[in-house]
Amino acid sequence: MSGHSKWSTIKRKKGAADAKRSKIFSKIVKEIQVAVKEGGADDTANPRLRLAVQNAKGVNMPKDNVARAINKASSGEANFQEVSFEGYGPGGIAVFIECLTDNNNRTVSVIRSIFTKKGGNLGTNGSLSFLFERKGVFTVPGGEIDKDEFELEMIDAGAEDIEDEGEVYIITTALEDFGNVQKKLEELNIEPENAELQRIPNDTKELDTDSALRFLKMIDDFEEDDDVQNVYHNLKMTDELITVLEAD
Questions:
Q1: What is the tally of structural domains in the chain?
Q2: Which residues, 6 or more positions from 76, have their beta carbon under 8 angstroms from its beta carbon?
Q3: Confidence (pLDDT) at 1
Q4: Count of CB atoms within 10 A of residue 6's CB?
Q5: Which pLDDT value is given to residue 6?
Q6: In this structure, is the dihedral angle defined by the CA atoms of residues 112, 114, 119 and 124, taken in order, positive or negative?
Q7: What residue numbers bound the domain in which 63 lies?
Q8: Theoretical Cys-Cys bridge with 31: which of 52, 169, 216, 224, CB 3.0 to 4.6 Å?
Q9: Within a domain: residue 140?
Q10: 195 domain residue, yes or no
Q11: What's the pLDDT tens digit per position in 10-34?
């Protein structure tokens, strides 16, 4: 898990440095709209919406933006559907992509094009699902938290792994314990920067650093597309690769 969480932390820092806030806002707005369409506009009765609103707070999204997203979805203006893609990148690294789109043909075309241009190939849905496991991942700001007491509370709530990344803690839970950890954080009055279900690779594959960097450029291309919400892969994040990424 350490390589995965380290990569998440690097992306978090780079995202802030690269001023990608508008992209982050766009993703959360789509998630809010899909959540409303799926379960209604009352976040007390709609866990998915409650989580999306919580994540909006975590990135300091203005309340007006959240309200507009909910209203747009409630009026039927927003019409996004969830689609996913699976394939292999250069070096045989598995890639799982989650999208929210209002034009499936456009999204398929863009995803296939990126795979082709970067030396990968788009596979059939379901072909790679076994390589990833759904887990809950929370990013919690360090702040004034008492580390020892906090870790005990999280373990008691069902946390599988807690990593101290300096400014934040990365907490990983089994899928079935996601709600328990979320509830415990609420009881402790701790607001996570981000909380979501992610696809964690069951095993990883190592590439030499140059090949790994080329692969990660493909991942960047996917993540820059407006229809893409999340991209997961099973590239092993070696110490050498992490050092290069942090220095970039």
A1: 1
A2: none
A3: 44
A4: 19
A5: 59
A6: negative
A7: 2-74
A8: 52
A9: no
A10: no
A11: 666 655 545 467 788 999 999 999 9
DSSP assignment letter at 44: T
52 in a domain, yes or no? yes
> What distance in Å separates the CA atoms of residue 21 and residue 2, rounded to the nearest whole number?
26
Is 244 part of any domain?
no
199: helix, strand or coil: strand
DSSP single-letter state for residue 205: B
User: What length does the chain have?
Assistant: 248
- Whether the model clears a pTM of 0.85, i.e. scores above it, the answer is yes
State the number of CA atoms in the 13 A half-sphere of 52 facing the CB: 29
**pLDDT in the model for residue 21:** 72
pLDDT for 210-242, tens place per residue?
A: 999 999 999 999 999 999 999 999 999 998 998
Phi-psi region of 92 (alpha: psi -120 to 50; beta: other; left: phi over 0): left
The strand ranges marked E within the chain are 81-88, 94-101, 121-122, 132-141, 159-164, 168-174, 194-201, 228-233
Inter-CA distances, 194 with 51, 141, 226, 232, Å: 9, 10, 20, 17
Segments in the chain below pLDDT 50: 1-2, 17, 19
CATH code, domain with 39? 1.10.10.200
- State the DSSP H helix or E strand holding residue 119, giving kind and residue range, or none if neither: none
